[in-house]
Each structure stands twice: as C-alpha cells, then as structure tokens.
Design a protein that fits this description.
By secondary structure, the chain is α/β, with parallel strands linked by helices. 39% of the residues lie in helices and 17% in strands. This is Putative amino acid dehydrogenase.
C-alpha cells in the first residue's frame, strides 16, 4: 500500500487510492460505475515506487518480474462533481512501450487486460494516457475492442494540445513577453505537436508567435511541409523546418538552441534536449513521455541562473468540478490535502462526460475538433495551474526580471 498520510476526516471519507482502491470502493457499497477512466502506465521506476514503496528495494530484473505478474491496477478512484473518475495503471514501463521488441506484447496487454478492467467497472469513457496513444496508433488499433466493450475511446490529445497552447499563453503573459518577441520551436510533430501547430494556425484565442520552427525526423519531412503550409495559409506566421537524421540526437547547432525563445516538446526520446545548451530567456514546455529534458538539471539552472522557464505540460486545473486527487503525482499544489490538477488526457474524458456533444478523438484531431475542445475547456472553466517544474513552483517574476534585464542590455 501507499505510505500512510494524515488527512482530515471529511477528505478521508472520499479516499480510494493505492493498490486497494477498487476493492475499497466496492467494499463500501459504492455504485460500481466509474464514469471516466484514464488508462495509463508508470512513466519510470519512481512511479512504481509511488504505488508500492517496498519495490524500491528491487533490482531491475526483479522489478520486471513483478510487473509481469501484475494485473492492471486502479491507483485511485475519485468522486468529483457528478462524475466518478478512475486512474488505471498498466503494469508496463514506458521504455517497454518504446522498445520495438516489446511493443506488440505491451499493446496486447493494454487491449486484453487494460480495456477489460476498465469495462468491468462499468465505465463509459476511457482516455489514453502517457504512451498508450502512440502504442495504439492513436487509438486506432484498439477502437474495435473498445466498441465491443461499450467504451467510448478518446486519445486525450485534443485537450493536451489545447492545454499546451494555453500554457504557452500563460507563460508569455506572466513573463511579460508578446508574440512579436517569440520564436516557437515545436520539437516532435506527432499527434500532440501537430495539434499545437494547428491551434497556432486556427485559434483566435492563442497568441501567435513571430515565427514557428517545426522539428522532427527526416522521415517526417512531407508531413512537416504540409503542416507548415497549413500554418502559413491560415495565420500568415512564417514557418521553418528542421529535420533530424535520427530521433535520438538534437545537434548542438539546432534551431531550438540558436533561434527559439520558446520550445514546446512532445517526443518519446528521453533527454534529447540538453538544458545547458538552451539559450537564456527560453520558455520550455514539455509534454514528452519520457521527459525530453532533465528536470533536475532544469531546476538547478532556475535556482542558479534564473534565465529559463522550464514548465511541465499536460496539467489542467479542474477544481471547477470538485475534483481532488490524492495519488502522489508530486503536483505543486499537493501539500498533504490532495490536488485539483488533472492530467490533460484525463481532462479530455472529463469534458466528454460533461459535454456529450464533443466527438471522441481516435487518430489525430483535426482543426474543428481542436477548436471544439478549446471552447469546451473554457466553458467548463478549466484552467492552467501555476507554472511548475516537477513539484517546484517556478519563480516567474525572477525570470521576467532576468529576461527584461537581458533585453535592456541588448538594446543599449
């Protein structure tokens, strides 16, 4: 079980988290139906230890043996306003979902074990978290099975794209920057990266930058060109394209380091971006699984130099629906009484359950879908939480002062 924490009586009466969440929910006579379930996985070893603290003593081989023996586990069941919400963890590491030799087995476990566990709780909506979207070809590979089980499947990528765009706006606003000051690099133009690019092209609610740089592998060149043409046609924002020889290396002379003043990343290659090479004054917004850049190195630079703003992305404040999670995800607002922050992929399911007119997203979201979810996001009064790197709230005022000083020095 998770390590014991002290909560007030009122909060504790609604706590169903840890390995026994599902058993305790049912044992207390709660109705079986959980309306929305996030189907996700441990990002790394640390996430497994959050669920099973004793697992920290296992070596890598023992940990893999443990995962092979486990069934999908509800890490938490949450009673929100008019909705019951589940977070279901697949016993599969992110690195195994990326490994070509293990992807097939990982996908089979997600379809056979994960979806069955979701359906067994009477859920209607299932959202794909972490790498499960990419693993299932953005839901296409498991759509048929989901329908057989009566589940409405959505990738979560529309709200993730919306939340990233809104977080970019928040970072600009709070740091005193304007679109005219900003060159945005989108590192990784898959479903999420493309969604952000389409919002820059079509949304009237997001601040458009002076220039956009699309960065992906050489194999994606035609796709990048098509997205670039769409951005230019609908917004007039100039677009540059950078192609990488491999997905594992971002060269030191990359436009991300040379020209970008904001880098939005959504990749599956860990630590492809070197924090030490990031230019002073850069806003970083990372929604990668695993992380695109090292959180410890980024926070150290914030503390010592204060010249970058490294933000965790994919976070949505859903306090409007009285959502409160006690699973120890290390969100900055969790100081012992839970968190009102939801992962953006789950927030998409919360919107769908609350606004049935919204279409599910299987495959990549197009511009009309993105704009519909952007509108629903605002209508539901969802918001972007304070900017944070890991559990650390970012000192935005210090960054603003540092960046302003740099700007003044450049003009003297």
């Amino acid at each position: 079980m998770l390590q014991d924490k002290e909560f007030d009586t009122k909060a504790a009466s609604r706590l169903y988290y840890g390995p026994s969440a599902q058993k305790n929910w049912l044992a207390e006579g709660r109705r079986q139906s959980v309306d929305v379930v996030l189907l996700t996985h441990p990002r790394d070893r640390a996430d497994i230890v959050r669920m099973f603290p004793w697992a920290d003593s296992l070596d890598d081989g023992e940990l893999r043996d443990l995962l092979d023996c486990l069934q999908p586990i509800y890490g938490e069941i949450i009673e929100a306003k008019n909705l019951n919400v589940g977070i279901l963890f697949l016993p599969i590491l992110a690195e195994d979902m990326i490994d070509p030799r293990k992807r097939g087995r990982s996908r089979n476990r997600m379809e056979k074990e994960g979806l069955a566990k979701v359906a067994a709780m009477g859920a209607k909506h299932v959202c794909l978290g972490g790498l499960t979207g990419a693993l299932s070809n953005y839901g296409r590979r498991i759509e048929s099975r989901s329908k057989e089980l009566g589940l409405e499947l959505t990738t979560g990528h529309a709200v993730t794209s919306v939340s990233i765009a809104k977080q970019y706006d928040k970072a600009l606003r709070e740091s005193g920057r304007s679109g005219a000051d900003t060159v945005v690099a989108i590192l990784g133009v898959g479903s999420v990266g493309a969604g952000v690019a389409k919002l820059f092209a079509h949304s009237t609610r997001i601040t458009r930058p002076a220039r956009i740089i699309l960065v992906d592998t050489l194999q994606q060149q035609e796709r990048l060109q098509a997205i670039a043409e769409e951005i230019v046609a609908h917004s007039g924002v100039p677009v540059s394209i950078e192609t990488l020889a491999t997905r594992s290396t971002l060269p030191a002379d990359s436009l991300c380091y040379r020209d970008a003043t904001a880098i939005i990343s959504a990749v599956s290659t860990p630590y492809i971006l070197d924090i030490d090479l990031v230019a002073p004054g850069t806003i970083l917004i990372d929604d990668s699984q695993p992380y695109c850049w090292d959180r410890d190195a980024a926070w150290k630079r914030v503390q010592t130099q204060g010249d970058i703003l490294p933000c965790d992305a994919g976070l949505v404040d859903v306090s409007e629906i009285e959502y409160r999670s006690f699973f120890p995800f290390d969100f900055a607002d969790d100081v012992g009484e839970g968190s009102s922050i939801s992962w953006s992929c789950l927030a998409e399911g919360l919107l769908r359950a609350s606004a049935p007119y919204l279409a599910s997203n299987v495959g990549e979201a197009d511009a009309p879908q993105l704009l519909a979810y952007e509108q629903a996001f605002d209508d539901m009064k969802f918001d972007i939480p304070p900017l944070q790197c890991g559990k650390n709230l970012l000192p935005v005022a210090r960054f603003r002062a540092c960046w302003s000083a740099e700007s003044r020095n450049e003009t003297i």
